[in-house]
Amino acid sequence: MLVEFDIRTSAKREMIDLTARVAEIVARAGVAEGLCSIYTPHATAAIVVNENDDPNVCVDVLDALDRLVPAGIWRHDRVDGNAASHIQATILGPGETVPVRDGTLLLGTWQAVMLVELDGPRQRRGVVTVR
Length: 131
Description:
Layout: E1 2-8, E2 14-17, H1 19-29, E3 33-39, E4 45-51, H2 55-68, H3 77-80, H4 83-92, E5 95-101, E6 104-105, E7 111-117, E8 123-130
């Protein structure tokens, strides 16, 4: 089963919890055991699995990315000023794979599937494949 959906981001940089949306797709797929792939087809966004219970974790992740890859010093910035977003998205990656057991995502207690917006606000797309 392959499902695409839209995500409207509202800030330049943010992390959006997609877990409930992805879990519902997994439930509809009717797969007892398998894999769930979550992907975003964008060069300045990423998919990660991390904690979303404490909102400070998301802020800390974005702050760490800014310290690792500062804005405004890259050649691509002469084109459209978002080189750091491209580099950060490359580090994080466009997708994650989560096991499915008993028809549900096999996530840890504090884990969530999140879209990382690095150059918003924008209309983004998520692609979920369950096998």
